[in-house]
Amino acid sequence: GIIGAMGNNGIGVSGIAWKVKLMPCKFLDASGGGALSDLEDCLDYAITKGARVVNCSFESPVSSLTLSNAFLELRDAGIIVVAAAGNSGTCAGTGDSVGYPGKYSSVIAVAATDSSDARACFSSTGPAVAIAKTRSGAGPLILRLPVRTSRKPMRLPRLRPTLELRLEPLQRLD
């Protein structure tokens, strides 16, 4: 993953955690479809293997009790869950268009920003989005809790170590 991409080697992008241990778990097929039971298996695997942070770069417009309970189990296990807020926003930035799992109170929904650090027109909006913005480069990450941004999909993995450091003392995110 990008987060662990080695730097100073002249190849591609550089991550920010070169010695990170990654635990990939895929449940979606090439067309973006997948079974809820396969997602549950991935989340159970993360708990069993001792994950500290789970990154969910997918969204769904619908919720289910099973899915909600699975993300509560992650929270109760002390695992920070970061998820894409979604790409269903409008340029007006009105309404609640955050998808699941980002909409669950136990999950940190990450919205997208543009090159000016303003909300991207396509980015989902709503009360579940709680990170004010990301900063690429020096300077603090400005958070408001219970937390949630990403400029591009590849930025989401870069946010995880920061969240892990900043949120580790929290017992619950809701």
SSE arrangement:
Elements (H helix, E strand, L loop, with lengths): L35 H13 L4 E4 L8 H12 L3 E5 L23 E3 L45 H12 L7
Parallel strand pairs: 1-2, 2-3
Label the structural class: alpha/beta
Into which percentage range does the β-strand content fall?
A: 5-15%
Would you tell me the overall average pLDDT?
A: 75
The residue ranges in which pLDDT falls below 50 over 5 or more consecutive positions are 135-158, 164-174
Number of helices: 3
Helix residue percentage: 10-25%
Intertermini distance: 29 Å
Quick one: how many beta strands?
A: 3
**Major beta-sheet overview:** 3 strands, parallel
Q: From the alpha carbons, calculate the radius of gyration and give it in angstroms.
A: 16 Å
What characteristic shape results from the CA principal axes?
globular
Arrangement of strands in the largest sheet: 1-2-3
Secondary-structure element pattern, one letter each: HEHEEH
What does this structure look like?
Residues 135-158 and 164-174 have low confidence and may be disordered. The relative contact order is 0.15. A three-stranded parallel β-sheet has the order 1-2-3, with helices on both faces. It contains three helices and three strands. The protein has helices at residues 36-48, 65-76, 156-167; strands at 53-56, 80-84, 108-110. It is of the alpha/beta class and 174 residues long. The protein is 21% helix and 7% strand. Helix 1 (36-48) packs parallel to helix 2.
